[in-house]
């Protein structure tokens, strides 16, 4: 994908012309031209020279951004220079225009005095108007150069309309001036006065001045739409303190290489992405994530460019430099999103492609119609010129890109990165939100939730023994116990003879006594579990928690429950989604019992459990048949589903594959940013629709008024100067309306509107998994025994069928999803049979 800077564009007709010219080349897959950023994005296998040549043949200039030495900041500074140039042109034009208006209208309409020479010589006064008007036209010559260049290349644009309108007024007035000269020579004073009312030099100059006012306001407003991007670029660190040959030196941040060791002192910006090798500190990452609370950093933690070290000195190793840093990637993402064209722009593009030729035809028909109707040439010309100057293709071309630029900028400020314009538009249309469980709804790692000691031991005593035992294990459940122990105790008790029992638990000797921890089956082999302990364990399992049983010698001492806890903000985010009318679904590979327990706590509408990674995409395809589907995930196994969904969001702390597959990335990794992204998308799309409505309605109402259609009925006619003023204001209004997005609070649910409801019950059909478990069972003696075992096994939702045989001492269990085999064994054992 290549990006180009395009010069010479002034309206939507220009961008449509460039797009058409490049798209017609063989080998071009897609071409998008953005009027707001004056850029073009091309995908294909065509050489740069051919692409640039096609743009030049269309009448415009092009330069490859990727091979240009200027960076984005220079490109943005160019827009400031352009605004300054427009202001200088405007000031010069207004000074001359003030004198012109004084001579042409001030004397006649307001009775303001003129030098005696001009009062007694009307032709000389009109000649002065010609000179002043010509001076304004020279100052604003770019309208005529670009406008007539468009005619030469058979691609008329907004500048063409302005040039024709102003030029026609000037040329007609020049002919009138010659006629006045003849009348003065022959002493025809009455005719001379009559001709003086047919002069439109002030209109020719006023049109140019007013259009320049509009261009200035539009340019300034467009500069404001890129404030977020400019803010990101300004964060780029300029220097870095690195260690070279054992000495600390200061170099430009761009010169840092991968593997360099750099030093960051309190108050300094981190120059590149790296890993802390020495020191501890708190780093303010609000510039990248929007999170105001500084993040603790110690050895082994990652740090990102443009974040600020607030406390201690950090020594870090450079990992990503230059265009590979997190900041550079964010800037690139925002820029690309702004440069792409949203689907909503298609209607405007179609209209823009025929707009200017249509206006030229309407202007010609207007002149001809009024001439045939018996009006003077001056009257007919004024109506035709009004049609030319009131028509505004600019507003059509800016309606979508300005809203996309502002919207993507607001997202970036809040740690929400929309990769494309289409993503910004589509996210808010979601009717179904599908959330992965582990790492998205939950924290993604187990933590200790409950400590339930037996009557002969305290909470702290149970935790200390469990901590001292589990600290030797690498199992995730053991780590959850160990982490809690580290928080409460200085160090564990000394243990010896540690042994991990595959799939069931661990044991060791502590203070000379055997301590065992593990699942129910393991502890039941050591001691008798009281009924209240079994009941408690069942209740914990119903809540989605894993109960760990502990015994000292052959005596039961308690239960510690561990679970992958729900994220702090998950419940709020899910409730807000439901408040928006979005149907929430939790999708997981976990067993149904655990998944439904987590789903109840989180408050989702539906839970789809036991789904293997390769099946998630199939589920998404089925959900899409019910409505627009948004997938939210973080893991490698979520990537196919993220790609398949109508729109997708990845948690920033997730895997690179998930982040690459998603349309939107949440830098703060908070689920509440999902609702923020949806609100921002909805607001942006609404703003685009408002802009397109006003752009179309302005032209639909303005052109008939300018053409004089209302004159025979209501006596209404439009002076060309007012038409030019209206044209100037239209673009400014569209850009200003887009800037209103800046006051949007994307985290407030007060104005949430409900999405189109999913009325039908969601039913997901999944292929039965070809899974089978065979249990060796002793004690079955007859068909009644077989029936008892069969019934016990088929009570599990994960079991499709079970066939028991007392003759073969076994039961064959067919599963539809994964299940802990220990549960199957226990179900059979509870019926009085022995399972091997």
Q: What would you say this structure looks like, in words?
A:
51% of the residues lie in helices and 19% in strands. It is of the alpha+beta class. The strands form 6 sheets. A 7-stranded mixed β-sheet has the order 14-26-25-24-15-22-23, sandwiched between helices.
Task: Please summarize the sheet with the most strands.
Answer: 7 strands, mixed
* Termini gap: 61 Å
| Spatial order of the strands forming the largest sheet | 14-26-25-24-15-22-23
Q: Quote the beta fraction.
A: 15-25%
Task: Bin the helical content.
Answer: 40-55%
Q: Structural class, please?
A: alpha+beta
Mean pLDDT: 84
Overall, the morphology is: elongated
C-alpha Rg, in Å?
Answer: 37 Å
Uncertain stretches of 5 or more adjacent residues: 67-72
- Total helices: the number is 31
Give the total of beta strands: 30
Salient structural properties:
alpha+beta; seven-stranded mixed sheet; six-stranded antiparallel sheet; 30 strands; elongated
